[in-house]
Design a protein that fits this description.
30% helix, eight-stranded mixed beta sheet, single chain, 477 residues, alpha+beta
Amino acid sequence: MSREPQHAGDDSIYDVAVIGAGVVGAAIARELAGFRLRCALIEAASDVGTGTSKANTAILHTGFDAKPGTLEARLVRRGHRLLGAYAAEVGIPTEPLGALLVAWDAEQLAALPAIAETAARNGYAAARPLTAEELYGREPHLGPGALGALAIPDEGIVCPFTTPLALATDAVVNGVELVLDAPVEAITGTADAGYALATPRGTLRARCVVNAAGLHADTIDRLFGHAGFSVVPRRGELIVFDKLARPLVAHVILPVPTRVTKGVLVSPTVFGNVMLGPTAEDVPDKGATVSTAAGLAGLLDKGRRIVPALLDEEVTAVYVGLRAATEHTDYQIAFHAAQRYVCVGGIRSTGLTAAMAIAEHVIEGLREMGVALTPIAERRRIRMPNIGEAAPRPYQSAAMIAANPDYGRIVCHCERVTRGEIADATAAVIPARSVDGLRRRTRAVLGRCQGFYCAAAVARLLTERSGRPLDEILALD
């Protein structure tokens, strides 16, 4: 059943408005949907999960290397369990590959016991050391010179596209109103009278506001009179290699982390590719998502040491993500009871894993702030289409093709995406409104040719199915 995004400008007032429909905002909205509240999920872009959520390393973290005692450490550990269970329930692609933290010199090797101790302090006791011989037995294509590793068996990979979409879909089917194309430009009013959130699509009114605006969380925080942190985007460039590279890597291969970054990793993806990255560069521009020659050259140089044979494979894509780094080393989550305002800022790359635990934490804070949280009797359940390689896809299902021959009619041959999947994506609860939206829902145009052969056909199908003119669809990409 299709449901179009709601329009701003309704004169009635929301109990809670969540600003930002990335993975964290969507998780908070989903949690709120479990209570008798009128809630809005407000997003500046034309779709959910289009900011920091869509361009990351897509690791399902255990939190083994987080700083003990921090809020991040606690929420990542809890989030790993929550997202793992939720992914199995609703069909978010995951793969429990395990990770290897590789030491390339004596100093890094000497650091591994302390990292294992940190993991234990974070409640993760399964890390164990590997000798060089054991390491190469697990990863024979690893470059020469590695001295040993720390095995983290419960690390995994997850789909960065389906996760925020599933959380937002779950929220919408359970009553949350999604408002897209609605950047919040001004906030007026008080906690007693309610807030007026001005957007280009009209003004929304809410008794309580949750700020999950990602890169712009500091801007929203200042509208409420606070200046506890500033977001300095940390640009991460990544290289995606062709599916023929997949046999070269069996685990997530991690570097020994530094104080600034978790470093450059090599990891399979749930789509069957291999990813190298990210870089870590603080930039002043919150829209600086253009790759650089220096960044890509640096990645290739590191990749040559980690898995030399990887550089003999074809590059499918290069992409750039921005992490919401701040001057602090922990998440910046604050509850301002007098204002009935919650700030969820400084959520870095671990936010994908921690999102559902962050949502739990926000609900606890709202309850302490006095927000009436009466559970609903029963939630509607969802199931997302599978776009991962670890489970059968529609083109492989004789039963699905027999029921609907369009599941056997491939449009995007690189990624084996069918007409039936595109039709489903345009008729979903949160429908695809652009080719980029289809890419994140179906993998169309995501493959080796990057849409060279199929983009026109995909756009035409989207136009036919959605009823929107082509120029409107292209304008959203």
